[in-house]
From TrEMBL:
Zn(2+) binds at residues 145, 147, 182, 185. GO terms for molecular function: ATP binding; thymidine kinase activity; zinc ion binding. The gene is tdk. GO terms for biological process: DNA biosynthetic process; thymidine metabolic process. This is Thymidine kinase. It holds the Pfam family TK. One of its GO terms (cellular component) is cytosol. Belongs to the thymidine kinase family. It comes from Sulfitobacter sediminilitoris. Homotetramer. Its main location: cytoplasm. Substrate binds at residues 170-173, 178.
């Protein structure tokens, strides 16, 4: 039975690595996965999913406003597709998540989305919010804060190491400007809690 999955985490937890490993597992068993990533995210190259540990794979891209149901239907008409993998799913528009859900239900293809849950201000990304509402299964990809606790938040730092609380929600690249933290240390970093 096809399902819509949402694998979420904070920055630098290995979401793309997990996606690439899962896609490899399908290929190893003779099944064809279909990989998608955000068109404007070119960190690993145009139409490429890459991980910080150095592995990568070519992928098709999706753009804002693109009909993903139609895109998947077209792909399925070309030949067999065992599973769809969507990287950077936080950049999906709410309507695109609904289109993926319809593809799962009507085209009977599993869709695995991988993305951030919240931004550096602690706000849900629109794509992630809709995935949290619609996904049949959700799985957290875990990473840790410097204190050893599970990191669930992220801060964005400027060139001087100061925490930023304003700015565009989407900033492609600059992994070195983000630090994953537990909620307690995120609150401390953003000035919502006095240091113990």
């Amino acid at each position: 039975m096809a399902k819509l999955y949402f694998h979420y985490s904070t920055m630098n937890a290995g979401k793309s690595t997990v996606l690439l490993q899962a896609a490899h597992n399908y290929e190893e068993r003779g099944m064809q996965p279909y990989l998608l990533t955000a068109q404007f995210d070119r960190r690993a190259g145009d139409g490429r999913i890459g991980s910080r540990i150095g592995i990568g794979k070519d992928a098709d891209t999706y753009a804002p406003g693109e009909d993903l149901f139609a895109k998947l239907e077209t792909r399925l008409n070309v030949g067999p597709c065992a599973c769809v993998f969507v990287d950077e799913a936080q950049f999906l528009e709410a309507e695109q998540v609904w289109q993926l859900a319809r593809a799962v239900d009507d085209l009977r293809v599993p869709v695995m989305c991988f993305g951030l849950r919240v931004d550096f201000r602690g706000q849900l990304f629109p794509g992630s919010a809709t995935l949290l509402a619609l996904a049949d299964e959700m799985r957290e990809v875990r990473t840790i804060c410097y204190c050893g606790k599970k990191a669930t938040m992220v801060v964005r730092m400027d060139q001087d190491g100061e925490v930023l609380m304003d700015g565009a929600q989407v900033q492609i690249g600059g992994n070195e400007t983000y630090v994953s933290l537990c909620r307690v240390h995120w609150r401390e970093a953003v000035g919502d809690r006095a240091k113990p």
